[in-house]
Amino acid sequence: MIRLSGIGRQFQVGEQTVQALRGIDLHVARGDYLSVMGPSGSGKSTLLNIIALLDQPSAGSYWLNGRDVTQLSDDELARTRRDNIGFVFQFFHLIPRLTAAENVEMPMILAGIPAKQRRERVGEALASVSLADRAEHRPNQLSGGQLQRIAIARAMIMQPAILLADEPTGNLDSQSGLEIVELLENLNRRGVTLMVITHDPNLGARAGRQVRIVDGALV
């Protein structure tokens, strides 16, 4: 499903060249549960952004579902990202002025899905994260664990095959964090390919596969 070969990413900071990733080779099969661990600044988020098609590598190739996505146009990248990849972030990234239901609905509006179908799918998505009774609540009326559940419902509303979670429990208490991890793992058991980026060894150890990144290289 995901194949990275020789991936490098460098940034120019003033007159200095910063090598964020170095020769990354990684294969993720359909249905895998993979954790990517490493200290802050090791390159985890840069790697996530490349896999998420939010950034382009400076070197190497990235194949997604048998297609070299490094050769796609911006519009093709956006469509591929929308149809294949869901995102869950540490800070939720919900829109404050929208209700829970409206936040979950937003990707479908952007995709041009008819209103009736959107309403049905939003109801199902909120029920799947046990928040059907919070549909009309805004983010400031929800707990951290509830916010992350809404974010997961939004991430999965387009039924992506891949879910990328960047420090998904980093802003939560222990109990809420465990509930979120179990929700993510349940999605994986249903066939979703799950990749978790974390510096928490306890969270990382739960994955079926673990890789570690240090100074931009897998070790």
TrEMBL record:
The keyword Repeat does not apply. It holds the Pfam family ABC_tran. The keyword ATP-binding applies. CDD domains: ABC_MJ0796_LolCDE_FtsE. One of its GO terms (molecular function) is ATP binding. Keywords: ATP-binding, Nucleotide-binding, Transport. One of its GO terms (cellular component) is plasma membrane. Residues 2-219 form the ABC transporter domain. It comes from the Bacteria. InterPro entries: AAA+_ATPase (IPR003593), ABC_transporter-like_ATP-bd (IPR003439), ABC_transporter-like_CS (IPR017871), ABC_transpr_LolD-like (IPR015854), MacB-like_ATP-bd (IPR017911), P-loop_NTPase (IPR027417). PROSITE patterns: ABC_TRANSPORTER_1 (PS00211), ABC_TRANSPORTER_2 (PS50893). Belongs to the ABC transporter superfamily. Macrolide exporter (TC 3.A.1.122) family. PANTHER family: ABC TRANSPORTER ABCH.1, IMPORT ATP-BINDING PROTEIN. This is Macrolide ABC transporter ATP-binding protein.
